Amino acid sequence: MLKEKIKQLAKQYAPDSIAIRHHLHAHPELSYQEFETSRFVQQQLAKTGIPYQVMAGTGVVGLLEGKNPGSRVIALRADMDALPIKEENEVAYRSKHEGVMHACGHDVHTTVLLGAARILHELKADWEGTVKLIFQPGEEKNPGGASLMIKERVLKDPEPQAIFGLHVHPGLETGKLSFRGGMVMASADEIYITIRGKGGHAAAPHLTVDTILVASHLIVALQQIISRNRNPLSPSVLSITSVQGGHTTNVIPSEVKLMGTFRAMDEEWRFRAHELIRKQATELVHSMGADIDLHIDVGYPMVYNNEALDLVARAEARQYLGDDKVLETEVRMGAEDFGYYTRLIPGCFYRLGVMNVDKGITAGVHTPRFNIDEEAIEVGVGMMAWLGAHARFGG
Questions:
Q1: Which residue in 93, 300, 340, 350 is the catalytic one?
Q2: Which residues have CB under 8 Å from 24's CB, separation 6+?
Q3: Is CATH 3.40.630.10 what the domain over 2-186+302-390 is classified as, yes or no?
Q4: Rounded to a whole number, what is the distance in angstroms from the first to the last CA of the chain?
Q5: Which of 29, 139, 374, 378 is catalytic?
Q6: Are 310 and 387 in contact (CB under 8 A)?
Q7: Total-model pTM
Q8: 13 is catalytic
Q9: pLDDT digits (tens, 9 = 90+) for 9-37
Q10: Regarding the domain delimited by 189-297, which CATH topology (the fold level of the hierarchy) does it fall under?
Q11: Is 374 labeled as catalytic in the residue annotation?
């Protein structure tokens, strides 16, 4: 039985998979700089006997064919980049690159896909269709490695009928998976604002344009764009996260810089909000006598899981793990460039539980102490191999 074969191999190869994860974790690389990681992935695929090609600089795409290769095409995706965070975990496989850390679990994602590829290759006489293995760069930084891979035709020749991707979930117990159809994660755009005016002595504000005061009014006013213009039933967030201006107590600066992020779950509202931000910011700043430069760096689209594919994935997960191991995941205002894929083909982005309270493994992603219960790797590898070999959608 195919399921039992996959489970057996996932367990058999678990030590190898954990060793791969340790290597990747110890050698993290920032977005679009994943040169050694890419070479490592290529070496692993070559060792297994899986043909591959390199695209988007450091991206790697493998192709596996089972019986009747044209009968179905499924894509499986992992991301490879790390974050500019100094690791605080005291583990043997701690990051060897100072100030760079796999704090979002992309080392796990890459490990899982490599493990699934190994199993699918070994069992290719037992399943039908073609599986495309996508190892992408730059998920953590605009414009998003997924967008670059798509430009280089990663979803063509052959074109997948569906794509699956996973993400570690530090709030979900090891051994469990969580799914959600429809809206899953938000779009993410970066806001950069520079306010300029005549600076001067703080004791003579009437001779200046108080850029600090202008910035303060603008920060408060921007929140009204969300509260007064958005449909209250549509999640959306605007946060100003950086204010830079001035350097002493008695000088009004001639320039203040603001940075922030805008998140939405509705693409129409998203771009309407961009126009409202530009209009309101420009008019308010000008009305207070200052000048403004404003740039909105359009980032990732929202992640929308195809509802029918979500049902397929849940059914496959229940068949592989059991009903009690498959849960509903929450909507998140965080962003993921997996959304670029789901705009073009049916996609399912699901969560892999990695938490173990008894082991003290509870830290969140993007923190210096993030880690996983490595028993989750066997689950992740097996489930992704099972989806690659068994899931059917369209075609």
A1: 300
A2: 37, 40, 102, 107, 110, 111
A3: yes
A4: 24
A5: 374
A6: no
A7: 0.94
A8: no
A9: 999 999 999 999 999 999 999 999 999 99
A10: Alpha-Beta Plaits (3.30.70)
A11: yes
